Task: structure prediction
Amino acid sequence: MHPSPLLASSDRAALRLWRAAVGGLGLAAALLAGCATSEKDEFSAMAVEKLYAEAKADMASGGWDRAIRALERLEGRAAGTLLAQQASLDLAYSRYKAGERPEAVAGPALDYAYYLKGLVNFNDSLGWIYQVLKQDVVERDQQASRDAYQAFKMLVDQFPNSRYAPDARLRMDYIANALAEYELRVARYYFERGAYLAAANRAQQAIREFERAPAAADALRIMVLSYEQLGLNDLRDDAKRVLQLNFAQAPGAQPKAAKPWWKLW
Result:
């Protein structure tokens, strides 16, 4: 629309100034809206899978506040799905870790939700220990077992007096022993193939993560024999001292490389 030629020149100048002012206000409003959107909706452009991955990364690094914002957004966007249910559990845990305990425990039957999640993963992981001798042990995926352990741990940490806590603790012990046995089998796999450094490292990992598991004694023996093969006598002697100090009464406390005590298949 052009100014009427009947307007005086001063009126046309005033009209141009008015339009410029209105345009400037519109631009400023758009900029402010953009800033508000970027602050309020930092996750708005993300797919739900990416949003959950961001939240898990923040949880892993201790960025609980950002994880909470992402999980709150995810709950709404993925409503009615399994991902939303998982987000609710992770949101409760993130709030708990961020010090927001009242909000963390506000969910209905949250202890049972953790217990149920643990049971699902626990049942998914049961088959592996019975199948481990039927395939290459290094191909086994232990994620379900570790997820079950973590869910049970959340339960007993947050709800130590829950009716489900005693059973969760028993299942945690079972999972820890099974995972330690798995690490031990992988160490034996490497030892059998002459990969002595890999065998020692895997055995050490089993001890570091599951020092109270029955497999710890055999893991130490693998370390002794592996370091012996590598000519690392100081490390061998250190492992032998730990073995004799903690498992002096256990069968095979004095390992002998000539006897293949580790060969189970």
About this structure: The radius of gyration is 30 Å. The CA atoms of residues 75 and 86 lie 9 Å apart. The mean pLDDT is 75. The chain is about 70% helix and 0% strand.
